[in-house]
Amino acid sequence: MHLTRRIWIQLAIFVIVSLVAILVMAFGFVKLPRLIGVGTYRVTVELPDAGGLYERANVTYRGTEVGQVEKVYLNNGQVDAELKLKSGIDIPSDLEAQVHSQSAVGEQYIALLPRNGTSAPLKDGDVIPRDDSSVPPDINELLNATNRGLEAIPGDNLKTTIDESYLALGGLGPELSRFVKGSTQLAIDAKANLNELTNVIDNVGPILDTQTDTSDSVQAWASHLATVTGELKDNDQAVRGVLQNAAPAADEVLALFDRLKPTLPIVLANLVSIGEVAVTYQPSIEQLLVLLPTGTEAIQATGVANRNTKPDYKGAYLSFNLNLNLPSACTTGFLPAQQARSSSLEDYPDPPPGDIYCRVPQDSTLNVRGARNTPCITKPGKRAPTAAMCESDENYVPLNDGFNWKGDPNATLSGQPVPGLPPGSPAAPPAPAPAPPAIAAAEYDPATGTYIGPDGKVYTQSNLAHDVPKEQTWQSMLVPPPGS
Hints:
There is one protein chain. By secondary structure, the chain is α/β, with parallel strands linked by helices. Helix content is 40%, strand content 13%. It is built from 13 helices and 10 strands. It has helices spanning 5-29, 32-35, 139-152, 155-169, 173-192, 194-202, 204-213, 215-234, 236-260, 264-280, 282-304, 387-391, 474-478; strands at 40-47, 58-61, 64-75, 78-86, 95-103, 106-114, 127-128, 133-134, 450-452, 458-460. The protein has an 8-stranded mixed β-sheet with strand order 7-1-4-3-2-6-5-8, with no helix packed on it. It has a two-stranded antiparallel sheet with strand order 9-10. A hairpin with a 5-residue loop joins strand 9 (450-452) and strand 10 (458-460). The longest helix has 25 residues, at 5-29.
């Protein structure tokens, strides 16, 4: 038989197409290399029992097929499954092997679930221990248990239960669906935050202990809350009245603010200035508040000392010991006597230039509460007559030492001029003759006979002491002692 060239070409093309088809079939569908073990490696899984697993069952990793079950066999009374996995897919060795069913009739497969994605990958010959594997429950036992449970339920009661369930859940499909979806999302979030939830569960003991330890306080709080709610119930009409009248009261408050709009900003602006002063003088304000109760006590002492007495005296309980000119009046730093104005005048001339105050030493007994002893708030420990001197580095300098006059007592030595009389004023009348010194009286200590004289010095008169042997009278006090 003679074949033409064309037939030979057709036969060659047919053979080439057949070989390509056979190769595609072998490698693409039959996967011949995998059947003979090329590009695969084997891993053994120790199982509690077979769980319906069979040969050529799929093996998945993260939902993707990565191999098959090559065989399931007994090993010393235990069930082992040998897996043939694809090479080139790194599967972490720290994992769990779980047998699952794709449907109710079987079709088991092994799912590899990694616990630590950074662990070393599986290699040929590795063994997944039995503690890291699980199988689903036997479907026959599950069906038998379900059947026994259904048989234990009386038929009439089951019908009643179904009917009541229909009445309770009928028409609630969307709500139940939303509830199931919410529960699923809650479970997903709980799994994503598993470490935090585990930490909360592990450390919830101390929190519960605190609740146990404070149970009395919780019960007291609940009791007080019950009392409050009971009071609200008993005063329901009053509460309703407050709620009903709240809106008119708010309207009145708004109307008040509307009336205060023209003046309220000015008041608040002035309060800002007052606030700055109050902040500066905060220690003094605190001291004033500290001394206020003591002052109140003193006022009460003078007002109630004569209460319930016979006869019933009215008025304050006062002492009329006249310490005249003790100490004497301070004239240093003030205007001359010829420029003193009579208290009967009603005009109000401009004040003289400069600062007029008692300019004696700060530790003098004259005018101890004068301007020279004003504490400097911003510089504790310093005393000065003016705020400018307080803020500066200048210290107070007296004109003289009080009783011993040095120079002009009218502040001219400090640079302050003595104001002159206005032009055309009549000449000043001559100065009157000096008046005799006033009789001074002083309180003395009856135990020692000591007292402070008008000059501020301490004197002692021994015959005033209580231990003098002879009787003392007021006449003898006026007579100088013998030999004086």
